[in-house]
From TrEMBL:
Name of the protein in its database record: Fe-S cluster assembly ATPase SufC
Keyword ATP-binding: yes
Gene3D superfamilies linked to this entry: P-loop containing nucleotide triphosphate hydrolases (3.40.50.300)
Lineage: Bacteria, Bacillati, Bacillota, Bacilli, Lactobacillales
Presence of keyword Lipid biosynthesis: no
Protein family (similarity comment): Belongs to the ABC transporter superfamily. Ycf16 family.
């Protein structure tokens, strides 16, 4: 079992405090969901954990087992087992989707254990079939000309291929029609397992009709203000963020 332990994390952007002392522990085998109003700092949290250079961590630690991720470069964090599916995946002309994934898989493997072309293609075909993706998408340049829905599906494909220990999926369900949402959920459910943990950031309870998280957290003003089981998302849908956040902030 692996543990991702975020302790007292503070993140600033251009000296503005965005994440303010956030604590969260995720174990492999678990799926956690973070919900929260726009501007709560959800994307900032994920980007800072992955090591995006625009985000300055001013305090706290992010331990992946015995390693403080904050001391590693971005590529070393990926190698250590972290994966981030961003809200707006960028286009990388000149790099095919397949070659990107093969490099990413091999970056996590020892020199004498690289994936063979044959095993890679077998695995790729299997995962693309699961996600109902046409095979030609593997040979296209990364995200170039992909529709919004194709980009989201492709992020899940990368995750299925790379098999990270912990994946952070930022608004993986935004802008999807119901059929695409179901396919993305099917991919996430296929990732589930003893050796995998996830942090899913979403605005919509509807994703949780298809993925059953172990924990739901509400984030506001750069902190987690309430944590619960899947029912918390239902409560949120019924009551709205404001009620829940106000109640969470009330002194006892
Ligand atoms: P969420 O994902 O919860 O909607 P974000 O983490 O994207 O929230 O943003 C949190 C706050 O940080 C917002 O006030 C946003 O305007 C600000 N912010 C995010 N990214 C940047 C950036 N690159 N430069 C300046 N401000 C930013
Ligand atoms: Mg947002
Ligand atoms: Mg966001």
């Amino acid at each position: 079992m692996s543990i991702l332990d975020i302790k007292n994390l503070h993140v600033t952007i251009d000296d503005k405090a965005i994440v303010n002392g956030l604590n969260l522990t995720i174990k492999t085998g678990e799926i956690h969901v973070i919900m929260g109003p726009n501007g709560a700092g959800k994307s900032t949290l994920a980007a800072a954990i992955m090591g995006h250079p625009s985000y300055q961590v001013t305090d706290g630690v992010v331990m992946l087992d015995n390693v403080n991720l904050l001391e590693l470069d971005v590529d070393e964090r990926a190698k250590a087992g972290m994966f981030l599916a961003v809200q707006y995946p960028s286009e990388i002309p000149g790099v095919t989707n397949a070659s990107f994934m093969r490099s990413a898989i091999n970056a996590r493997r020892a020199e004498n254990d690289k994936i063979s072309v044959r095993d890679f293609i077998t695995k790729l075909n299997e995962k693309m079939a699961l996600l109902e993706m046409p095979q030609e998408m593997a040979e296209r340049y990364l995200n170039e000309g992909f529709s919004g829905g194709e980009k989201k599906r492709n992020e899940i494909l990368q995750c299925l291929m790379i098999e990270p220990t912990f994946a952070m999926l930022d608004e993986i369900d935004s802008g999807l029609d119901i059929d695409a949402l179901k396919v993305v959920a099917k991919g996430i459910n296929a990732l589930r397992g003893e050796d995998f943990g996830a942090l899913i950031i979403t605005h919509y309870q509807r994703l949780l009709d298809y993925i059953h998280p172990d924990y739901v957290h509400i984030m506001a003003d750069g902190r987690i203000v309430q944590s619960g089981k899947a029912e918390l998302a239902k409560q949120l849908e019924a009551q709205g963020y404001k009620n829940i956040i106000d109640n969470a902030n009330k002194p006892i």
